[in-house]
Amino acid sequence: MNILRLLRSGTSGNRQFIIIVTSLSGLGNAGLVGLINQAAERSLLDEAISVQLMIVYLLTLFFFIVSNRSSLLHANRFVQSRLETMRRRVVNKIGKVDLRTLERMGQGDVYLTVAQETDHLSQTLPLIIGAAQSAFLLVFLILYIATLSLISFFVVAGFTVLGILFFLNRQKALTGYLGEVHYKEAELIDNLSHFTLGFQEIRLNANKNDALFEHFTNLTSDLKDAVLRDGGRWVTLLQFSNAFVFLLAGLVVFVLPIFFGGYTDTIYKIMAVSVFAVGPMAALTSVIRLLGRAEVGLGHVYDLERRLDEGLSPSGPKSPRQNSPFRNFSKIELSEAMFRYVDRENAITFAAGPLNLTLNRGEIVFMTGGNGSGKSTALKLLCGLYLPESGRVLCDGEEVTDTTRQQYREIYSAIFTDFHLFDRPYGMENVSTEEVERLIAKMELSDKVRFEKGRFTTRELSTGQRKRLAMISCLLEDREVYIFDEWAADQDGHFRDVFYREMLPDFKARGKTVIAVTHDDKYWDCCDRQVTLDLGMITMAGVN
Ligand SMILES: Nc1ncnc2c1ncn2[C@@H]1O[C@H](COP(=O)(O)OP(=O)(O)OP(=O)(O)O)[C@@H](O)[C@H]1O
């Protein structure tokens, strides 16, 4: 069971303490029921209720309150710390996974599982711990019945076990249906993103908006039907558990006295116990539904982790950049490198290679080729984001291996066409505000962006301006090799000039190596060499 797996992962000391206080709380609760019964019996027999009994009652109440509070607080803390560890572990794995694995998972799935499921678990798991207290109370109440009448005890215990077995059997079947609800919820959230991310398109096209809304309406209706179907099944099961308590009480009160003499004295005590059992029983059965939901949710998180584990890159040294032997490279090579994209059915959708490419230190290389010819793919292979299926990546003749790959990647800084603009220069916390402001001015963004409290004041910029902001982070990183994938395509004529005529020579003067994808034939004199790709093959790798 996934929930047990999560709870077992904490320190055993904490867990044992929670089990002890939770059972003590159940014991205190059952003790209160027993004391109330005793006091009621005395009133019935016209006997005075002793001060001693009252004191014992108050002490038991105090004991119950303290143990109950301690159990709930510690359990909540324990569950939240387990979830925190799990969130960190999953996100840490995302940061270490191989790019292709992440691309194939789909961002929606990753986001939903990490954000939504863990949030859901953080709300439901503490309730489940509360229900564990109810379970302990029920056990103690049944044991208390044993002190009143052994026959009732065996009847109640026997029927309770049968009832629990039936309940668990049905509950397991119903949990299976929850998976259907989860996938419908995920589909709905995915569809919702079309309204936000595709807002501009649907505002310009009423038919598109209406069709999208109709699709969304169908999905909400499907989800509602699935939730109602699931809810209906649960109502039946809840009704069963509620009726079960009363059937059991009826059996003890109406049927047993017919067969066993001298039993009537204890009936009202057992009745009182039954009344006290109704609340915990109802609490327990209603929480079991949440338990099923939490179990399914945790299953998704563990499944995501398993898939991440499959694509985890082997970890290299702790500070890969500082210790990187590749920083002093003279020559980088792709040698007979092959790479293929495959779809979910493992059908090949694009094959690149065998690619043979040499990059010398300090060179400015332009990469050209038609759309979909494999330029970005080749660059991702070159910088170690993709792993060649066959062939090698060599640095000064030494093959880049699983253990050295991260050190190798650390010599690169890249702006791909699907780049992400971070709100601050992460990993460069000590960078001076003056230096960033100087680069903002150099990128001619001073009237748009400032650098305050370690972050850029805005990212709401035009595409070309966003790319210039990304360039600032690249420059701050001060790496040995720069990859620019059609960086200049979104710049105006003036800034293209700045890029080709000022920035590239400046990179070269500082000994940096640049490989830039470009279609700007006007600037071909600005490179040392051109490489052209077609259908995943290098068709030209000549000298300018
Ligand atoms: N993440 C991906 N998953 C599956 N297939 C992909 C992926 N990225 C690219 N492809 C496929 O690989 C082929 C080469 O894509 P790539 O992006 O390398 O070409 P490109 O030359 O950079 O194209 P463009 O000039 O349009 O940016 C394309 O046909 C594309 O369909």
Compact summary:
It comes from Roseibium limicola. This protein is α/β, with parallel strands linked by helices. It has helices at residues 2-8, 12-44, 51-96, 99-105, 107-148, 150-197, 199-203, 206-259, 264-310, 375-382, 405-409, 433-442, 463-477, 493-509; strands at residues 331-342, 348-360, 364-369, 390-395, 398-399, 412-415, 451-452, 455-456, 481-485, 513-517, 529-534, 537-540.
Bound molecules: adenosine-5'-triphosphate
| Overall average residue pLDDT | 85
| Fold-level CATH name of the largest domain | ABC transporter transmembrane region fold
Straight-line N-to-C gap: 64 Å
Shape: elongated
List the uncertain runs: none
CATH superfamily of the largest domain: ABC transporter type 1, transmembrane domain
Q: How many helical elements?
A: 14
Structural class: alpha/beta
Pfam family, one: ABC_tran
Keywords: ATP-binding, Membrane, Nucleotide-binding, Transmembrane, Transmembrane helix, Transport
GO cellular component, one term: ATP-binding cassette (ABC) transporter complex
Transmembrane segments: 17-36, 48-67, 125-145, 151-168, 243-264, 270-291
Write the layout of secondary structure elements.
Blueprint: H1 2-8, H2 12-44, H3 51-96, H4 99-105, H5 107-148, H6 150-197, H7 199-203, H8 206-259, H9 264-310, E1 331-342, E2 348-360, E3 364-369, H10 375-382, E4 390-395, E5 398-399, H11 405-409, E6 412-415, H12 433-442, E7 451-452, E8 455-456, H13 463-477, E9 481-485, H14 493-509, E10 513-517, E11 529-534, E12 537-540
Parallel strand pairs: 3-10, 3-11, 6-9, 9-10
Antiparallel strand pairs: 1-2, 1-4, 4-5, 7-8, 11-12
Helix pairs in contact: 2-3, 2-5, 2-9, 3-5, 5-6, 5-9, 6-8, 6-9, 8-9
The chain binds adenosine-5'-triphosphate.
Main location: membrane
Subcellular location: Cell membrane
GO biological process, one term: peptide transport
